[in-house]
Amino acid sequence: MSNTLSKTALIVPLIQSTAGEMRACMSRASEAGADMVELRLDHLADLPDDADLKSLLENRPVPAIVTYRPIRQGGRFDGDESDRLEILTAAARLGADYIDVVLDVPPDNRPKGRTILSHHDFTGSPADLEEIVAELEASDADVCKIVFTANGPEDALTALAILRNATKPTISLAMGEAGLASRILAGKFGAFGTFASLSEGSESAPGQLTIEQMKNLYRWDSAGPATEVYGVIGCPVAHSMSPAIHNSAFAETGIDAVYVPLLIESGAENFNRFMEAVAPWTDIRGLSVTIPHKENAIARVGAEKTDELSRQIGAINTIAITPDGSFSGTNTDYAAAIDALCAAMGIGRDDLSGRKVAVIGAGGVARAIVAALAHHNAETTIYNRTFTRAEKLAEEFGAKACPLDKVAEISSEIIINCTSIGMHPNVNDTPISTGTLSRVKVVFDTIYNPIQTRLLREASDAGCLTVSGVDMFVNQAVAQFEFWTDKSAPRDLMREVVVRHLTGQQK
Ligand code: NAP
Question: Whose CA is nearest to atom 34 of ligand 1?
Answer without folding.
Answer: 447
